[in-house]
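Give me structure tokens for this 380-residue protein.
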Amino acid sequence: MPGEPNLISCNQRPDAGKPAPMRCIAAVNTQTAQRAAGRMMIVGLKGEAFDADARALLEEVRPSGVVLFARNMPDCDTLTRLTADLLDYDKELLLAIDHEGGRIDRLPAGCTKFPAALTMTKSADPGLIREAARAQAFELRSFGFHINFAPVLDINTNADNPIIGDRAFGTTPEEVAHHAIPYLQGLTEAGLLGCGKHFPGHGDTSLDSHLELPFVELPADRLRTVEMAPFARAIAHNVAMIMTAHVVYQALDRELPASLSSSILDGELRGRLGFSGVIVSDDLEMKAVADHYGIGRSAVLAIGAGSDMVLVCKEPEAIRETRAALADAIADHTIAPATLYAAHVRIDKLLARRRKLARVPVPAGLRGCALHQELAERLA
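Here you go.
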């Protein structure tokens, strides 16, 4: 259409402090579709260094972010070099980590080891939990991280749950909100973006979604008043991101897991709860979705259902497959232009929020310091 701009002007990264302009028309070319697709991805790296293979992958896919795991950080020096190299490559890249404490502790030796969420709640002091989150956030930011995929907002309601357990902040929605919201506030105060997970609630499952697709048969009213209640509280406290669960909630969608369900993401999370931040999928390489839908198709379904970003956490082949599937779906309008536009606007707002939080100064010398160690011991 003469005089109309391209769909998304993401052929270049935005200047510092300026969000990339988001525009929408009916037709897109292949390159624009690929750039738009990559921008909706957060990807993992296999190794400990930003080597030629990792650089080639990022240059090809152009993701918005990179998520790092213990495999990427055998020691503090290696992690410092890796994050510095990534941000030297692209200063706008979002660096994310999945770091809670307890058994979900990614940072190397030399950093403070905080206990699991359920252990911390035994202190009966939400103020201490807030301080723990601030301490974790400052240590994470000292390496260059911008996002922590925490807090867990699931409720530990099933003793046979193999994946949540002591990662939850309680066994009732009131307990979870009472402790998880201060944790979220602590992250924000220290300049780190938090992400509540796993919507609408992974606490009452008996299967591990890394390995199998769980089903939950609870009635819709129970899901809304119990499982979703901590998420509603987090939304009221302006949580930046919410991660979805690879779990089928049959009262809300009899076929698709929440991460791929428009009735759950668009209907419940966006519509009923009014969440306007970024929705991100859990890792699409998890067998709960990869074995049933395929990674590429899962990505397309997730974005079409209401997610703004998808996680692909390890294999380069899976990352490339995801980018290709999303680009094809953008080009042929399987992902509607309006859906695409809305997602990119929310990503822009997340980047702007990241830049604002980056102004919070990071005190020197806090990694594993005596003050943080004492705090961790009090909470243990």
